[in-house]
Amino acid sequence: MSLIQPRTLKGFRDYLPAVMIPREQLMQTAREVFRSFGFAPIDTPTLEHLEILTGKGSDETDRQIYRFKDNGKRDVGMRFDLTVPLARFAAQHIGTLGTPFKRYHIAPVWRGENPQAGRYREFIQCDFDTIGTESVLADIEAVAVINNLLETIGFDRFTISINNRAVLTGLLDHLGLADRSVPVLRSLDKLTKIGREKTIEEMVSTAEIDSEQAEAVLQLAECSGEADTVFAKLHEITGGNEKAAQGIERLKNIYEGALASGVPSRRLRLDVSIARGLDYYTGVIFETVLDDLPAIGSVCSGGRYDNLAELYTKQHLPGIGASLGLDRLIAAMEQLNLLPTVSTPASVFVAYFDEAYRDDYLRLASNLRAAGIGTEVYPEAKKLGAQLKYADNHGFEMAIIAGGNEWNEGQCQLKLLKTKQAEQITYSHDAPSTLVDRIRQLLK
Amino acid sequence: MSLIQPRTLKGFRDYLPAVMIPREQLMQTAREVFRSFGFAPIDTPTLEHLEILTGKGSDETDRQIYRFKDNGKRDVGMRFDLTVPLARFAAQHIGTLGTPFKRYHIAPVWRGENPQAGRYREFIQCDFDTIGTESVLADIEAVAVINNLLETIGFDRFTISINNRAVLTGLLDHLGLADRSVPVLRSLDKLTKIGREKTIEEMVSTAEIDSEQAEAVLQLAECSGEADTVFAKLHEITGGNEKAAQGIERLKNIYEGALASGVPSRRLRLDVSIARGLDYYTGVIFETVLDDLPAIGSVCSGGRYDNLAELYTKQHLPGIGASLGLDRLIAAMEQLNLLPTVSTPASVFVAYFDEAYRDDYLRLASNLRAAGIGTEVYPEAKKLGAQLKYADNHGFEMAIIAGGNEWNEGQCQLKLLKTKQAEQITYSHDAPSTLVDRIRQLLK
User: Fold this and answer.
1) Oligomeric state and partners (chains A, B) (predicted)?
2) Which of A107, B83, B303, B363 has the largest count of CB atoms under 10 Å?
């Protein structure tokens, strides 16, 4: 029989334990943070009627959808994000669920794009949204969630940039350029890449505004410093325009509310230049950059949108949400040495080298597990050296070694695998607490 | 613009929070139990080269695969189980991973079968396997994992039936019927459904054995009672056949090892009649039945197989594993009232009804979260009645109510939502411990 070559599809990948352990941990942390704010989990099918997926998508997204006819000759597609399924879900169930509706969704999505470095055709999205309210409290909460997410994952130095698109819209209104907001924002988005002068040039040529107007936009975008100073400057530049004033007021509320929610001021930045998701976000916008790795881009972005599910229902559903970039975060944690390099989720390894005592090894392991200590018993009574090599390779913290003598004497050896330090500890099945306490102490 | 009808595909479903919360909890419990034994998580792509999936599948599985040509004209399919991907994965990576390799995998699979009651075209599988060892210790551990899984999920009364196919094979050998094992097992599998006499009849007609031989098979299958008695009877019926004797010895080791691993004897049952997965399992076989709901069938099944990845590699990879039936368990928990009926993962609800104190509500919530208490703030300053109705509907345990007076006096009201009992508690942002302690006490 000829063998089938074992291989994954181009653009797809296997997750081996050393990579999957921190991914799973990250997802679990995200769940816990979402839950602590009352966001509830949902899930939706991988496959949707194709018309649901292509409803609003751009040509580019449309091309990327994995699509086919199923056995029932239905046109179906694999979801390419979690936002379209959320919109369909909300349209279908909001009557049952009521508003406000707060959900999180952590699930894979698929895009048949040409894979680039670090990008795959299958990847996890990790989204949270509050639907059915325009309250600024939901905006504030989104900032607090982002802060707690990154903090709980283990980051300390990061910056959440906050914008409210209404401020710039108000300025354009004030300048009599209300209809140019899209090209202006598109140019503005390039500010950090192409620099001040080129941004002004591009604005003048593509948005058809004069250089003085472009200068005002740039001044607005460049407002920075102490929050109070920024708010004053924004008011000044927008010349009392009412829309802008309201936008600034909301931004101020978000800023103050975030502080009240425990977000340190050093992590907050007001930045009127950020403009992501032009066709989608309508109010506040967030981006989050790791201070030590700004080059990897935003690791958590989102914003407020006007009407989530307009393709599927007449019910007006405004909302706010953001998305945690799991893959970017993992890459960042790797670069910053924040990732454990183990391929076992258990801490204690029990060597098994005297078959006559098999049930003793099992009982010992069971006692440790009952005390909440993850414990693996090597399955074969091989030579100790081979077993300890396995334990080392997998990254166990410590090994327990006991042969016939030790079992008879009510002893075992506890060995720290990194330092090779070993100690004898009394142990009996009926009184495992000396060993348990010592292991707990060492694991701290 | 005409609306697109929001609907899911036939055979697929959305998971709303009330259903998703316990599902997520169950998956998390499973992860924790797997990890406590040193099983490590992996993940594999949803899509595989079609030839990988169709390699060994039966005609029936083949028909059920969601398959299509991707944009690169490759024949691809969505995985229909986690075993085929594991085999491919092991063939591809075992050189890096080494053996023994212990993994768990919790992920959706897809089958385009005609959906029946309670069965869907997309469902989660939850598998664990130990690959690369024939040691009985791995068999024992599988029993311990099943026990700890169900116990940690919250079940007390369940029975893990254990068989070793070698025992029956040995008997057939002894009777000179070594080549009839498949039809004999197939008939035997119907014992509980069609009864003793019909089973014998079927064996005689389909396996072409005589009624005395069938009687011996039935006697073997019906061995029950105290473990020691069963082992003695099995030896007697198999008449000293060596293969059977070895099989019985292994069964005995598994039984004793399971006891040593903390599995109570009342949950263990030796049952030579169970015969699942005829074409796949070759040694020990498990089934797990909830004592209070036997009708729903086995909630965790598995067994030992000879060679996992023979289609993809020449490396011999024996293994043992089992699969937790998440959907069945959820259905069972619902029937046994073991499921919480909430649609929020947070316990505390903070009513928000005085906008002037918005940041105080936020700070209070942030303080509770910092103490590990899940807390949701209602996003709009609506009437209290509407807010409490929302809190009731979602199943929060308690609500905190504070207006201007309370804030000024350093007080808040804590209301238990089920009993409507309310109490005044002192609270200030700088000293939240009185409130925190009281909430913790009430949540216990």
Assistant:
1) Homodimer.
2) B303
